[in-house]
Amino acid sequence: MVKPTNINADHLAEERLTCVLVLDTFNIYTNEIVSHTSLPLCLWPVDGRPLLDYTIHTLVRSGVQEIILLTRSHSYEIHSYITNSEWSRTYPKLIKFVSCKEARSLGDCLKDLEQEHLINDKNHDFLLLHGNGTLLTNEKLDNLFTIHKENVKKDKNCIMTLVYRQLDSNYIEHPSYTDDQYSYIMRDANTHRLYDYSKEYSDIYEIPLDLLEKPNVAIETLYCSLDCHLAVCSPDVLHIFKDNFDFFTMHDFVKGVLRDEVANQTIYSYLYEKGYFLPVHNLRLYMKATFDILRRWLYPLVPETIGAKHSQTPSIVANPSSPPLKLNDSYLSIYNQWYRITYDRHNIYKQGDIQLDRLSNIQQDVFIGYKSQILSGVCLRSSVIGQNCTIGKNTKIENSIIWNHVQIGENCLIKNSIICDNVLIRNNVQIDQQCILCKNVIIGTNVHLNERMTIIASNSVTSASVVDEIEIDDDIPMPSKNVKRSSSKQRSSSTRLSEKSFSEKSVSSSMEETVTSNSDLVGADGLGRELIFASTYDDQTKAFELTDDDDDDDDEDDDNDKNELNAFNAWGYRIKPIENKDILHDDDGDAIKSKQYCQSMSKRTTDQSIDSQTGDETSENDDDNKDSSSDDNSSDEGNEINEFQQEIIRTLERAYIQKLNIENIIVELNMLKPTYAVSPTEFDQSIVHAVFLLPLERKIANPEKTTYWNTLKLTLDQISQFIIKNYMKITNESEQVLLLNELDLICLKYIQPIGERILNILNYLYENDVISEQWILLWYKNKQEKIKTNQLEVKPEEKVYYDKLQQFVEWLQNAESEDDDDED
Amino acid sequence: MKEFTVILYAGGNNRLSTDLSLPKSLLPVGNRPLIWYNLQLIQSHPALASSVLLILTSSQSRQVLDDYLSTLNITYELIVYRQHHESTSDDQQQAQDELGTLDILRSCYSRIRTESICLFTCDLYGKVNLTPLINMFRVRDASLCMLLLKTTTSSTTGKESLVQPGQKIKYTAEPEFYTVDQSTNSVTSIRLKADLDEYFPLKQNILAKYPRTIIRTDLVDAHLYLIKKSCLDIAICSKYSSFRKEFLPKMIRQMATGQSLEVLISTTANKKMMIRQTTTDLDDLTDLSRLLEQYDCDNKQIRGGCYYSIDETQVFRVKNVLSYLEANRQASSQILSFTNEDITFKDRLEQIQISPDCVVGDGHEIGKRTTIKRTIIGKNCRIEDKCKIINCVLLDNVYVKEGVILQNSILCSRSTIGSKSEILNSIICSNQQVEGNRKLNGETVSPASHESVVYMVYDDEQ
């Protein structure tokens, strides 16, 4: 047995370095897609080796002597891969398995781990690699143990050190950043102790002042650093997870520990400033990882050396004596065959024997797997072609990952997509951004697939698909033995499925299932349908029957940690729009989504800049108010209108004090409308209320001296009359009547300061052409009629108001008649 | 064409001596006025030394300052700023003497004819290495570079604890929070504690731009800025009166979020009125007026950002009694480093003990069996026999009678100490007399009428 070397001797003498890998993302969208491919995400191929290989390589390089794999689904595949791989031969005791079939979250997994008693020793720190457990890095991680030890030495309560990598450019533009990595961290600049941690989006993060004023504390903020999903943990972490059943994710844990002041435990952080780090936990990062490996960013971990490590005993693979599990899994068996990888310039890798046409154009960063056929006129760029693939003439493939046994016809264009095992693509097919073709899918001739589609085939392989394959032989000349091979593989896979009792696909459902193929989507001669997720789309009912059987386990998961992980789809995009945002993110958004997000932010900032013109503090308060009030959207209608009215009053007040431009105020008011979901009438009513109640509710100018009327006049002069004019046109009868009715209501409610002033108010409005006399007279007439017919009752205290009103109307009528006289 | 215009603000009254004819800038430190150190600082960097030097002063102190400066071999221009606001508009609640820096700058604004401006106040004390700051300003094409100082909680050099002489005045510095990005040296926000309630808010959009920032609480502003003209234009047109407390935080905020600075300009009318002087060296007024043209703010020029440099050496601002004492203690070494002059007292006198770290001015008259340690003595002082003076500052024309013990005290000019007095930790204001055999500890002797105001906190000019 060869022990890993290149680690300092003290460590070896003292203790074993352990790393725990949690091989599941716990994201239902990712898992759903993964279930339609042949392999778990951690075993997805990059350059002919699975992702997990790179992680294990890194760990062995770092001197880790014990790797514990926590598996949930696909334990069979992972187990059989590892036991048959070079790893178990070289280091028989290196890798241990803990199967957590029941686990629904990281917390559950760690509880299972705790019960296994693999980590007993009190000082047995371990590395925890969560979020699919596949971290690609070219740094050695053993120094993390030392860092954690030092943290513990300085602070006994330290139980965990989280590892981050600084992003060197703006996070939104950074390719390693996906929405699900959004984080805000507040830590001490010197000790790196974590003080606050949040994954929720917020416009303003707050730091308590008393923390800032503590001596020897310099607060540092880390915003959207790359979360390596890596942590050095003291064994206590497992106990805490066990004791707190509500800690599902790492986020719950960190937040819980930071908030829990009783136990006083602390969490530290470590920020890498250099080195390659990429935690692969969604499909976008999987693609990036693949291309980064081809571009040799992970040097010294490059395809030809990684491959060579597995070259030592290729004969054993053929020898069936050693593996305890039957190796009839065709998908995994790929990994157990070794072929020499030759590395050419422009980062072109060729695995073993390949057929490469002279007229093909292999540009750069391309990996071509064993026995693949590249015909003439093919253009390849930044792509991986698996084993036994055939690429037809004049096909162009860019930034795509093509697994094994894939046949692609002529004149196809494939961009930024993942194509899984046994897929057949006929001629003239165009596949755009971020499509995934799961195994056994057939895409018909002349089909154009739009962006971000996930195509799955029915699970059972029918004779029809075999017939299809034979048909394709006419189109693409191909050695006949290849066909046999691939079809036999399919068959074997289907038998495997029926054998596996713990498979996610129940036997009965696969028997009953008929081939439902969406011919609109994949063409008449295609096979497959779009994968539709139950929880994202409303119109999924019919499609859901099919995904249902896969989803049995996951359904309950949805409710548990939906908020946390499942807010992001398999590509790492945020599914739900961010709350408190005006911009709507449509669900089938695409790559420009993050840009939108950018824009929305800049938009917001410009909004704020209007506010920040003068009173900085007030604008912030207003923001708070807006936020808080928009949170209460669910509260009942009356409150909403009330709140809306208050909001308008605040806006007007600010506008008055800061002497804002009328246009700006109107824009602002218009923007408030959708936030509160008020009807147009309610909106107008609120405006009127706000205008006349503003001087009453807010003491704008010297409250002692001025009367209500004086203040009102001031505000009217400056802003209010323009606002009213804008919303209640003098020519529009209904608007004018509404204005008068509302004014009437206000006056009756506040007889004392407002009602008694009706004369001045109406006069002012009349003089400034806000209200036309025509409507006043009409409205008054109606009102008088109502009073006469006893529909309206005049209370004694309201008399003063009505008197004044009458006085004004009389004056108005007189003035009118005088005008008439003059004209005569 | 010159690169900088240096504006040295030499206003501000000192309240140490009730003699108002002595402005703060002429307050002696090591028998040289405070402004001397600043002038040395300017001379120490070639870019600044060759620049136009504008010295702002108030009308009262203009004459004294001019008298002093004319003895030095420098070219300068004295500008008298108007003391009060022209209009007594009702919204100006400020007291008359609290004129903001921007108000003062407005009065000399027409004299600025370079693209870059170096602005500082004359209470900065210490040998600052300006090279990194100026280099940063040039390399980053910054809109503003500021010097930040580490707060020196106690600058104890000796063994004895520092006791503030005079009446105990609570001097609490208002904490400021500087959010800085240490990798690029940019300042992303300045917040005064007074503006905050319980929480320090961090805006998401600023975080997105500067993901890794540190909030420093251990820094203070040195009041030394290098500003682009385009940036100052906006400051001048804004309605703020204080540069540091009002304009600067807002400007940095606008810059950090990448927004236009124009919104800081007070009114739309002002925006249109905004005119820009061309930066040629034309002195002819007629030519100048021809060149005044409508100026629309070019955002590109303002986009440079705001940077800081931290000076780790012992630099501080002379703004309270303790820092004044400290400045005096360092005076001899400072002068040595600036001009290679050793001003410490070298003469050996019979029966008088004067330690080598003392500075004694001309025209001294020191009696026998007197001990003087770590003390700065001004011109024409008279000290009689058997005195013991430790760790004190004596300004000009002080008369100390026989057998007096002085410790950690400040004696202002023309004060007289009666014989056999014992004075500890006290301040004697100018023209004051202390009778014989008095014992003072931690007191301030001032003219009766000024009792309440006489403490030595200078106008902390914003």
From TrEMBL, chain A:
SMART domains: eIF5C. Keywords: Cytoplasm. It is found in: Cytoplasm, Cytosol. Residues 638-822 form the W2 domain. Residues 546-561 have a biased composition (Acidic residues). Transmembrane segments: none annotated. GO terms for cellular component: eukaryotic translation initiation factor 2B complex. GO terms for molecular function: guanyl-nucleotide exchange factor activity; translation initiation factor activity; translation initiation factor binding. Residues 599-615 have a biased composition (Polar residues). Residues 504-519 have a biased composition (Low complexity). Its main location: cytoplasm. Residues 476-521, 543-564, 599-640 are annotated as: Disordered. InterPro entries: ARM-type_fold (IPR016024), eIF2B_epsilon (IPR051956), LbH_EIF2B3/5 (IPR056764), Nucleotide-diphossugar_trans (IPR029044), W2_domain (IPR003307), W2_eIF2B_epsilon (IPR044123). It comes from the Eukaryota. CDD domains: W2_eIF2B_epsilon. Component of the translation initiation factor 2B (eIF2B) complex which is a heterodecamer of two sets of five different subunits: alpha, beta, gamma, delta and epsilon. Subunits alpha, beta and delta comprise a regulatory subcomplex and subunits epsilon and gamma comprise a catalytic subcomplex. Within the complex, the hexameric regulatory complex resides at the center, with the two heterodimeric catalytic subcomplexes bound on opposite sides. PANTHER family: TRANSLATION INITIATION FACTOR EIF-2B SUBUNIT EPSILON. Belongs to the eIF-2B gamma/epsilon subunits family. This is Translation initiation factor eIF2B subunit epsilon. It comes from Rotaria socialis.
UniProtKB/TrEMBL annotation, chain B:
The keyword Oxidoreductase does not apply. GO terms for molecular function: guanyl-nucleotide exchange factor activity; translation initiation factor activity. Its main location: cytoplasm. InterPro entries: eIF2B_gamma, LbH_EIF2B3/5, Nucleotide-diphossugar_trans. Keywords: Cytoplasm, Initiation factor, Protein biosynthesis. Gene3D superfamilies: Hexapeptide repeat proteins, Spore Coat Polysaccharide Biosynthesis Protein SpsA, Chain A. It is found in: Cytoplasm, Cytosol. It comes from the Eukaryota. GO terms for cellular component: cytosol; eukaryotic translation initiation factor 2B complex. Residues 351-434 form the EIF2B subunit epsilon/gamma LbH domain. Pfam families: LbH_EIF2B. Transmembrane segments: none annotated. Component of the translation initiation factor 2B (eIF2B) complex which is a heterodecamer of two sets of five different subunits: alpha, beta, gamma, delta and epsilon. Subunits alpha, beta and delta comprise a regulatory subcomplex and subunits epsilon and gamma comprise a catalytic subcomplex. Within the complex, the hexameric regulatory complex resides at the center, with the two heterodimeric catalytic subcomplexes bound on opposite sides. Belongs to the eIF-2B gamma/epsilon subunits family. This is Translation initiation factor eIF2B subunit gamma.
